[in-house]
Specification:
Layout: H1 2-25, H2 34-54, H3 57-74, H4 81-99, H5 101-124, H6 126-133, H7 136-139, E1 142-143, E2 146-147, H8 152-172, H9 179-201, H10 205-238, H11 245-276, H12 284-302, H13 306-311
Antiparallel strand pairs: 1-2
Helix pairs in contact: 1-2, 1-3, 2-3, 4-11, 5-6, 5-9, 5-10, 8-9, 8-10, 8-11, 9-10, 10-11, 10-12
């Protein structure tokens, strides 16, 4: 009877410890869960000591296996650099993106809103609105028959450079309560929407999308991650809950920096596509298809291990 009551009191903690050990093995344990893992490990070790004096052999065997598995994760030898990098990009980064999905979605929604406003301003708002949205040097590249082929890669490169700038600044300015981040997301969509309308006016809509979609899918995702990271920092300062603002910023800052580590390779891949695909003379439809492949690969990456996560 004493062991039955003991099991009932401790069972939830043992199951939770097993879950955390499994998450640590897969590299999917969050920073906030590590103290919980340590606490439950110490409690399980104490429970094992009790079981050896008062419990059945079955209970001792079960707790011994649990404590040993937790011990391996708590006191394991440091991993090599490449293995830690692999575990981060294979498991840690997709998990961090899912944890930040509300912020990332908010950033993307602001980009989409800016795109619609920019498209309306250039397409239907008149000269004053158009001049406010688009730089004059971009508009000067358009003649009566649209933009010349030789200038199209330059425009695509301009968009890429602008996106890189916005991504990094949106992250860094999150410490200003996220307000500049919100404005940057909207401004980024504003420029893209204005360009889309400008190409449409010259009956070059397919050309426009073929210029930006191959690398733009990855870029917009990276910009949204940068914006989401900045918004995480801003919300931590606005609503620190039971922490000081410094503590809340430090806690959320770790996750935001992990998102930034994911942005760097994304922008590198986008730069390769922008340099190799955009200037090429392959068909516009093939370029659009490359963008579709980018989207599928990004979705698959973000959803890595999500089924195991839900089951767990």
């Amino acid at each position: 009877m004493q062991e039955v009551r003991f099991r009932r009191r401790r069972d939830a903690g043992w199951r939770r410890l097993g879950e955390l050990v499994e998450a640590a093995r897969r590299g999917r344990i969050g920073d906030g869960e590590i103290p919980e893992l340590m606490q439950l490990y110490r409690q399980a070790a104490a429970d094992l000591a009790w079981a050896r004096e008062n419990g059945s052999p079955e209970l001792v065997q079960m707790l011994n296996a649990l404590v040993l598995s937790a011990h391996e994760e708590v006191h394991h030898a440091p991993e090599g650099t490449w293995k830690r990098i692999w575990r981060f990009y294979r498991h840690g980064l997709p998990l961090e993106i899912r944890r930040s999905w509300t912020f990332v979605t908010c950033a993307f929604a602001l980009i989409a809103l800016g795109f619609l406003v920019g498209y309306w301003a250039v397409g239907y708002g008149g000269h004053a609105w158009s001049a406010a949205v688009l730089p004059a040097n971009l508009k000067a590249n358009f003649g009566g028959k649209g933009v010349a082929f030789a200038l199209r890669p330059l425009i695509a490169s301009y968009i890429y450079t602008h996106n890189v700038y916005v991504t990094l600044i949106a992250f860094g300015t999150g410490v200003l309560y996220g307000i500049p981040t919100l404005l940057l997301m909207f401004e980024n969509g504003l420029l893209t929407g204005g360009l889309a309308a400008l190409f449409a006016q010259h009956r070059d809509t397919l050309v426009f999308w073929s210029l930006i979609v191959p690398h733009g899918v990855i870029e917009i995702f990276a910009v949204s991650l940068g914006g989401g990271a900045g918004l995480r920092l801003g919300l931590a300062l606005l609503r620190p809950k039971d922490l000081s603002r410094r503590e809340a910023l430090a806690r959320e800052g770790r996750g935001a920096v992990r998102l930034l580590l994911g942005i760097v390779p994304l922008l590198f891949v986008a730069a390769l596509i922008e340099g190799l695909v955009t200037p090429s003379r392959v068909s516009a439809l093939l370029k659009l298809a490359i963008g579709g492949v980018d989207l599928l690969l990004l979705a698959g990456y973000v959803l890595l291990d999500i089924r195991r996560e839900v089951v767990r």
